[in-house]
TrEMBL record:
Keywords of the record: Amino-acid biosynthesis, Branched-chain amino acid biosynthesis, Cytoplasm, Leucine biosynthesis, Magnesium, Metal-binding, NAD, Oxidoreductase
UniProt organism field: Guillardia theta (strain CCMP2712) (Cryptophyte)
Protein function: Catalyzes the oxidation of 3-carboxy-2-hydroxy-4-methylpentanoate (3-isopropylmalate) to 3-carboxy-4-methyl-2-oxopentanoate. The product decarboxylates to 4-methyl-2 oxopentanoate.
GO BP term (any one): L-leucine biosynthetic process
MF annotations from Gene Ontology: 3-isopropylmalate dehydrogenase activity; magnesium ion binding; NAD binding
Listed name of the protein: 3-isopropylmalate dehydrogenase
Length: 359
């Protein structure tokens, strides 16, 4: 909602599934620590989404949750999904709830920063000289593309099963996400690389045309274009060439997971899902529910904790709280505290406590 700074906030938490409750619990404690230190209040109230919601009321995104979110100043989401629900029909899958949430709240812009912290330059599988200094903002379109295109389904054609989805974008959808990317670039390195597959796909040709047209209002920002296959390669070859990358829903999903390995772990990348200024944003790590480590206290909560920092900056008008969280995360890493994904031995709960101690 991007509310004005106030003394007391109401925030919905959506712990979801798998490691979700563990990383959410650590994050809420960090938020409370920063609120106490800086003299304001946050009331957190949980709501159901994903598999947890399916188990409780057979709906992956209950109306009750939407209603509560709409009355909140902001929303923190951990992660949804897991093998328990993988065989469900599409409308009863946790992922369907997540997509419905994004669409219902008009969250068309997903900002996924991939910033290599100096302390983690050796955590990447790539050489430190390739990744150190990387600071990329992936601007992923979040409510269009093949994720939402119609028609879609599985049918029988010519005597065999036939599956189809439709990759589509309206001009207005491309224009509004391009504007978000150019506006962000203005506050950063003033360079936008638009990623598409215009050499093959008509929808990508439209994407490219509209990005070029929108760019006319941003002469101070440099625009380049790259095909998605090349972009995937360039991210590994020379990631420092990128400032802001703007791309569609599915390419952004894939490229941001790839970018996380420049930083060192998927467990480090936060995100902000924003769009409709009249409603709350949703702040969520880019990773999933990590069923392979759920319930073992092995998850890295930092992506969710850093998403909370984005919440304070983008939604709650508390940049000093965002900074305090980011500084505390930096100090934790300076002190060599690491969860398993970063080669350390510290558990999820302790990592949260270590951040709290440094607030
Ligand atoms: N936004 C979301 O809620 C979201 C995002 C991606 C995937 N999912 C769902 O999550 C489930 C699992 O998907 P997946 O395995 O492909 O992706 P995933 O992101 O859950 O996990 C991929 C790998 O990264 C590791 N990992 C992820 N987050 C971590 C963290 N914070 N700390 C340490 N390690 C971490 C996991 O252990 C796993 O090995 C699926 O149901 C999928 O649909 C949800
Ligand atoms: C779980 C899935 C629907 C989701 C997506 O593809 O958007 C996830 O991968 C993400 O990145 O948030
Ligand atoms: Mg993803």
């Amino acid at each position: 909602m991007a509310v004005k700074k106030k003394d007391s906030y109401f925030v919905t938490t959506l712990p979801g599934d798998g490691i979700g409750p563990e990383i959410m619990s650590a994050t809420v404690k960090v938020c409370q620590a920063v609120a106490a230190k800086q003299g304001f209040k946050i009331e957190f109230k949980e709501a159901l989404i994903g598999g947890a919601a399916l188990d409780a009321c057979n709906d992956p995104f209950p109306d009750e949750t939407l209603k509560q979110m709409k009355s909140s100043d902001s929303v923190l989401l951990a992660a949804i999904g897991g093998p328990k629900w993988d065989a469900n029909p599409r409308d009863k899958r946790p992922e369907t709830g997540l997509l419905k949430m994004r669409k219902s709240l008009g969250l068309f812009a997903n900002l996924r920063p991939a910033t290599v912290l100096p302390q983690l330059a050796d955590a990447s599988t790539l050489k430190p000289e390739v990744v150190s200094g990387v600071d990329i903002m992936v601007v992923r379109e979040l409510t269009g593309d093949v994720y939402f295109g119609e028609p879609k389904g599985i049918t029988t054609k010519d005597g065999e099963r036939f599956g189809y989805n439709n990759m589509c974008y309206k001009e207005s959808e491309v224009k509004r996400i391009a504007k978000v990317a150019f506006d962000i670039a203005r506050k950063r390195g003033k360079r936008v690389c638009s990623v598409d597959k215009a050499n093959v796909l008509d929808v990508s040709q439209l994407w490219r045309d509209v990005v070029i047209e929108t760019h006319k209002d941003y002469p101070d920002v440099e625009l380049s274009h790259m095909y998605v296959d090349n972009a995937a390669m360039q991210l590994i070859r020379n990631p420092k060439q990128f400032d802001v990358m703007v791309t569609g829903n599915i390419f952004g999903d894939i490229l941001s997971d790839e970018a996380s390995m420049l930083v060192g772990s998927l467990g480090m990348l936060p995100s902000a899902s924003v769009g409709d200024p009249s409603g709350p944003g949703v702040f969520e790590p880019i990773h999933g529910s990590a069923p392979d480590i759920a319930g073992t206290d092995k998850a890295n909560p930092l992506a969710t904790i850093l998403s909370a920092a984005m919440m304070f900056r983008y939604d709650l008008d508390r940049p000093e709280a965002a900074q305090a969280i980011e500084d505390a995360v930096n100090k934790v890493l300076d002190d060599g505290v690491r969860t398993g994904d970063l080669g350390g031995k510290v558990g999820c709960k302790q990592m949260g406590e270590e951040v709290c101690k440094r607030i």
